[in-house]
Write a structure and sequence with these properties.
Chain B: This is sn-glycerol-3-phosphate-binding periplasmic protein UgpB. The complex is a heterodimer of chains A (about 290) and B (about 450). Chain A is mainly alpha-helical and about 290 residues long. Chain A contains 12 helices and 2 strands. The N terminus of chain B is likely disordered. Classes of the chains: A mainly alpha (about 290), B alpha/beta (about 450).
């Protein structure tokens, strides 16, 4: 990959220019992250009156705790399901909108709206729709003899948060897919059409491969989104329940630390999550951006 | 434009005046968790106090739910920005008590500041929950309640039951529910808020069964849970059976957010919840008449009914403020526990009167005769002299244990576990939390 390099004559100037950014990163990221790493090795009472070094105890406990291991599996299911569903729908919508000439911008605008809805509000909306006492969907499902009660049925609770999280993320994915589709050279499509390839064949052999950088980028972004940004949705709909069925990793950090005041274990969990993100980011930069090139 | 600057300078002037007035007063901050109507009433009480004297000024600040308020106060303490007073719910009691360097015990505060204070004037069933092993009051009771039974008199009549007789025992309750459902008078017999607080902790106390060892945790940090006894297993088994038969509907974890609606819409005929839900029940029960009763008990259980235990919150004073502020806190507490303020708050909210004087004042005013059902809660907590099993509970990490109770109950209702399995698992997971707390507070 060729990158342009600008060489500054003065040695100090570049450092001066990046200094504000570095300072912000240090104060708002490195320092708190360092604190989290530090407290993940300590046992402390909530008020911070007594602190004891306990080494790896919190980490060892976590990985021998069935609830934590179950939460990892659950988060994986949730993250993959949301990524696939929201990206799939977004791609279909983007392809449909891309074919429109005059009304494309109107549809794009409308499709972007869910992204402006905050996660908590999105959660509340779906909570209303799926409420087992007053919601409209359980009523409709009752007609086809499906009893909806996500307060007791863990699978249904998981379906609920997957739907809510996917709905919100479709907009974002849609925008990127649409931009990606618009950058596919029209000449390639036309050449294939002349060769006799139908629309479906053209999509899978030309458009989809050309979209792959966008797709990989979105996959990473979506995985990050479901692992971190869905806190509001889980909090507003299921609160991690029933019986921990929707207690994802990030929600568990919150319940153990914020509600349970177990700061040591909560810090250890957030350090593990931090490692996940770093790994994903490394993959994105090292692997995806280099390999997926046309 | 001229008008605008005029108004602005007037505003600036009045702001300067108000700040200069406040300057002479000692500021006392109070973080609380009372939203809605209760929050308005609380602010009204504080405003009355501020108007009644000129030395201190109390500022109440709403910090969200009980959990959020407590966490905010703890975070503020770590940052050195703590309020003078914080309202903490009963499940946070163990954590607050263990934080010896962070809290200023109320008995000590009142003595240090020379405030008028008589601990024997408080109802023992309320104060007992918040005293240390030497009988010293550590926090100031403010809003304490206990669960009672509400029922729909009209549905009872429709089902052919006596509209003036609430069920006394669980056997009766099951039979009434069956009759209600069979007759089509309502969809379900009963629902309940707070599975943990009502259907496990109070169930145990009401039947004089231990919730944990060491006198329900009052005796020391090495206590263990013991709620997997035959009575509790039988009750949870019944709840599952009744749910499957359509007699009982689950209202959700924690407070049971869906339970009130089930009662208000006349879906369920009987409803168990805090006595402080009374105002809400009256406001929402527009199309039917509400009756009140004590919690049901199992017939033939020795010692039942005993007495119910409380929930709600108390006011904790935090360390790290100048003495003048603590003088203000002591003065404000004396005001808060005065019979007039207490009776007003109790009658408005349905929370228990915390002093004998407030209870007597209500009787003198004829309040209980004019408002049937308003004294069920008091009668229930004072039904018998509390035993070690029924004076309350004091466990660390109880917040998490409450959550475990909800989770295991959900596993029971979903059919994943039997009552015995769910309660055994609950006890072992809960004990793990207790050991963690013990280790963190050595």
């Amino acid at each position: 990959m060729d990158t342009k390099r600008t060489v500054f004559p003065a040695r100090g100037l570049p450092y001066l220019l990046v200094a504000p950014q570095l300072l912000i990163t240090l104060i708002f990221f490195i320092w708190p992250a360092g604190q989290a790493v530090k407290s993940s090795f300590e046992a402390e009472d909530p008020f911070g009156l007594s602190t004891r070094f306990v080494g790896m105890q919190h980490y060892l406990r976590l990985f021998s705790e069935p609830a934590y291991l179950a939460s990892i599996g659950r988060t994986a299911v949730f993250a993959l399901a949301v990524s696939i569903i929201s990206m799939g729908f977004a791609l279909i919508l983007a392809v449909a909108v891309n074919r429109l000439v005059r009304s494309a911008s109107a549809y794009s605008t409308l499709l972007l709206w869910p992204y402006a809805v905050s996660p908590v509000v999105a959660g509340i909306l779906w909570w209303f729709i799926f409420n087992s006492t007053t919601g409209i969907l359980p009523f409709a499902l009752e007609q086809i003899r499906i009893r909806w009660n996500h307060q007791l049925n863990g699978t249904q609770a998981m379906i609920l948060i997957i739907i809510a999280a996917s709905w919100k993320q479709v907009s974002y994915n849609f925008l990127f897919f649409l931009a990606g589709l618009q950058s596919v050279p029209q000449s390639l499509n036309e050449a294939a059409a002349i060769d006799g390839a139908g629309p479906v064949k053209r999509f899978w052999t030309i458009v989809f491969p050309l979209l792959s950088p966008t797709t990989f980028f979105l996959l990473i972004v979506n995985l990050n989104y479901t692992m971190f940004d869905t806190f509001g949705i889980v909090d507003a709909t299921t609160g991690g329940g029933p019986n921990q069925a929707t207690n994802t990793l990030v929600y568990k950090v919150y319940t153990d630390g914020y509600i349970g005041l177990n700061l040591g274990s909560s810090s250890a969990q957030s350090v593990i999550l931090m490692a996940f993100v770093i790994a994903l980011t490394v993959i994105q930069f090292r692997y995806v951006e280099r390999r997926v090139q046309y | 434009m001229i008008k605008f600057t005029g108004a602005a300078s007037l505003a600036a002037l009045s702001f300067m005046l108000s700040t200069s007035v406040a300057f002479a007063q000692t500021e006392v901050t109070w973080w609380h968790a009372m939203g809605g109507e209760l929050g308005q009433k609380l602010e009204e009480i504080v405003a009355q106090y501020n108007d009644s004297q000129s030395e201190y000024h109390v500022t109440p600040i709403y910090k969200g739910t009980y959990g959020e308020t407590m966490t905010a106060a703890i975070a503020a303490f770590r940052a050195g920005e703590q309020p003078d007073i914080v309202q903490v719910y009963e499940v946070g009691t163990g954590t607050m008590m263990a934080a010896k360097g962070a809290v200023y015990p109320v008995y000590q505060l009142m003595a240090d500041m020379g405030a008028e204070f008589d601990p024997s004037g408080f109802l023992p069933a309320v104060v007992g929950y918040y005293t240390d092993t030497d009988g010293n009051m550590l926090s100031m009771p403010f809003n304490s309640s206990t669960p009672i039974l509400y029922y729909n008199k009209d549905v009872f009549e429709k089902a052919g039951l006596d509209r003036e007789t609430p069920p006394k025992t669980w056997e009766e309750l099951a039979q009434f529910s069956q009759q209600i459902v069979d007759s089509g008078a309502a969809n379900c017999g009963f629902t309940t808020g707070w599975i943990s607080w009502i259907q496990l902790e109070n169930l145990s106390a009401w039947h004089n069964q231990p919730i944990g060892t060491e006198e329900n945790g009052f005796g020391g940090l090495d206590a263990e849970l013991s709620v997997n006894g035959p009575l509790q297993v039988k009750h949870w088994e019944n709840l599952k059976t009744w749910q499957d038969a359509g007699l009982f509907q689950y209202g959700g974890p924690e407070g049971g957010a869906d339970a009130p609606a089930k009662f208000y819409t006349q879906d369920c005929a009987i409803y168990m919840n805090s006595s402080a839900s009374r105002a809400g029940v009256i406001a929402n029960a527009k199309d039917f008449e509400v009756g009140y009763g004590m919690l049901p008990y199992y017939e033939g259980t020795e010692g039942a009914p005993q007495n119910s235990i409380i929930g709600g919150a108390t006011l904790w004073v935090l360390q790290g403020h100048p003495e003048e502020e603590y003088k203000g806190v002591a003065d404000f507490f004396a005001y808060l526990s005065s019979p007039e303020v207490q009776a007003d708050w109790h009658q408005f909210s349905g929370y228990l009167p915390i002093t004998y004087a407030a209870y007597d004042l209500g009787k003198e005013q004829g309040y209980y005769e004019a408002n049937p059902g308003s004294d069920v809660a008091i009668k229930q907590i004072t039904l018998n002299e509390p035993t070690p099993n029924s004076k309350g509970l004091r466990f660390g990490n109880y917040n998490q244990i409450r959550q475990i109770i909800d989770e295991e109950f959900q596993a029971l209702l979903a059919g994943d576990k039997t009552a015995q399995e769910a309660l055994d698992e609950l006890v072992s997971r809960g004990n793990q939390q207790l050991r963690d707390f013990e280790a963190a507070n050595q």
